[in-house]
Amino acid sequence: IAMGKSTVCDWLRELGVPVLDSDQVVHQLYNGGTAVAPVEAAFPGVAIDGAISRPELSKRVVGDPEALRRLEALVHPLVAAEKRRWLAAQAAAGQALVVLDVPLLFETGAEAQCDAVAVVSAPAEQQRQRALARPGMSEEKLGAMLQRQVADAEKRRRLCHRHGERGWAVGEGQV
């Protein structure tokens, strides 16, 4: 979270590289998509006007590891299905290079499905400041999110291509 993945993905899109944003897929699934009914069934009261209220859902899962596991068990297969559909469509269109923007890539084991892995990294304090500037973010929520993630140093150890160590001044040129 708040490392700069979205910025790098925007640069890649400008270069014509198709990017699948997993967070955007989740937003679509929650906004009238196929996740609404099962998530509402598991967490009654989180659906409002046919869409999942992310703030209401967050209240139910932040700080409750079992609730979070139940939510992920519902949502991750739906995201994976959309990823498979998208990849098939890109292959059919003849795309030789695509990018998957997956915040929990290592945590879900999805790196095994990739030909190469790039990690976008930022200093911890910069990450914290960026994250806390987001609407609805709190120290508690950020702490819970970071607890679930593979540590940045470990991600960088596993990567195929490193980005972000020397800052944004050279960042776009590296992409």
Describe what is shown at a glance:
The protein contains nine helices and six strands, in the order αβααββααββαααβα.
Description:
Keywords: ATP-binding, Nucleotide-binding. This protein has about 180 residues and is mainly alpha-helical. It contains nine helices and six strands. The chain is globular and about 45 Å long. The protein starts with a helix and ends with a helix. About 10% of the residues are buried.
Poorly predicted spans = 165-170
**Within the CATH hierarchy, at the fold level, what is the topology of the largest domain?**
Rossmann fold
Measured as a percent range, the helix fraction is 40-55%
Overall number of strands = 6
Q: What number of domains?
A: 2
N- and C-termini, Cα separation: 19 Å
